[in-house]
Task: structure prediction
Amino acid sequence: MHERVHDEGIKMRSGVRIERGVPLCSAELGLTGKADSVEFHPDKLTGEDKPFPVEYKHGKPKSDDCDAVQLCAQAMCLEEMLHVSIPEGAFYYGKTRHRLEVEFTPDLRKTTKNTADSLHAFVAQGQTPSAKYSKRCDSCSFIDVCLPKQVSRNLSVNDYIREQLSKL
Result:
């Protein structure tokens, strides 16, 4: 699913322009990234295209707001880049095959800004937050980078090596 949306390109579907793999940046948030997909819906009054970010997820909606913060950050980047207001976006969850719309409320925007600020504070301090393993880590694309199972166990290097050798 992600391979298809990460293929950069433009399609038209029912009068909506769909751009995939859209590069994003925001000087205000200090973020760069790439949107899975941005739909540009024609405004019937102005004739201008209104951006609508769509993020594709393999699983299902989460109980916390981490996905919503990611999508809101994408919208805030697009707003800064295109000088427009984006009130909402959507997720497409592969497991449920359901599209879920998200409103970018003032509270969600504040949480997104605070999250970006916290990220920059960690970077400035040279700190990496401790990884805490949970079941959702298994479906994360960064599990091989983060190594939450190994890091959260506090093994010494010698114990880790011994454990890996015993598995052979």
